[in-house]
Amino acid sequence: MEYFKASLKISAGIAALLLVSFIFIFGYDFLTQTDYFKTESFSVTGIDKLTKEQVLKQARLDKGVNILSVNLSEVRKRLTAHLWIAEAEVSRELPSKIHIRIKEQKALAVIDLERKFLINTAGEIFKEVSATDPDNLPVVSGLEFSDINVLEETRSLPFDAVMQVLKLGQNPNSLLPNTLIKRIHIDREIGLTIYAPAFASGMISTIKLGYHNYPGKYAGLKTVLAYIKKRNELSRLVSIDLNNLDRIVVLPVSNESPASDQKEV
């Protein structure tokens, strides 16, 4: 008798569990298929280079999809798989709206490693250059693959020099903003040289900075420019060597001029 009662209780428990499971399954199917939770609008924020349509296409979201049937985690993974999307957040607003907030990659420069790649503001390569990418970024030459950021490893001296100058150039009030820099070349022995054809009205296109103390060298460059302008000699110069702030050398327009034509400031 006791055995019969125990069996009856177990059977009742199983039946109740099955009933609850059925209710949950039925309820889930009902909620994820009902038109009440049909998506009517999408909110997309954080876009600059990308369009709302491109983001929704990458997310594989269409108007009319049931908002409760959307796997938010999977949508976020699809979004961050896009080369221009660094971060993404996806959320629902019941009954009919989906919010997407993205953080785009910020292209800082082009790294020329025989093939050209874009690096972001953290110095990380995030994509190979294509025809649709910005064409007004500084191009960095003279580096090797081994110089580029890998995880949390310390940057090489040449790459760290490039990043310091590029970060100075991000300031819109910088004496030499990145928008004026055409190319940055690294010589592993003597350091960094900037080519900026539009700098100082196009009269000084080459600025040799070497390694280290770039804020101090920019200050020195500002002082030299003020001195040269006061003497009305800017139009006769083509390059400035700031490797040694105690001995700043300016080079006249003619590259064939003898060394005696160089001026120290």
Overview of the molecule:
With 265 residues, this protein is an alpha/beta fold. The protein has five helices and 13 strands. The longest helix is centred in the first third of the chain and has 32 residues, at 2-33.
Protein traits:
265 residues, alpha/beta, ten-stranded mixed β-sheet, 5 helices, 13 strands, 26% strand
Low-confidence stretches: 26-31, 255-261
Question: Structural class per helix/strand content?
Answer: alpha/beta
* SSE arrangement, N to C: HEHHEEEEEEHEEEHEEE
Mean pLDDT: 82
Strand line-up across the major sheet: 6-5-4-7-8-9-10-11-12-13
Global shape: elongated
Q: How many strand units?
A: 13
- Number of helical segments with 4 or more residues: 5
Helix content: 25-40%
Tell me the strand percentage band: 25-35%
Distance between the termini: 110 Å
Radius of gyration: 31 Å
What is the makeup of the main sheet?
10 strands, mixed
Explain the layout of strands and helices.
Blueprint: H1 2-33, E1 41-45, H2 52-59, H3 72-80, E2 85-93, E3 97-104, E4 107-113, E5 115-120, E6 125-128, E7 139-141, H4 157-169, E8 183-187, E9 191-195, E10 206-210, H5 214-230, E11 237-241, E12 249-252, E13 263-264
Parallel strand pairs: 1-3, 4-7, 7-8, 10-11
Antiparallel strand pairs: 2-3, 4-5, 5-6, 8-9, 9-10, 11-12, 12-13
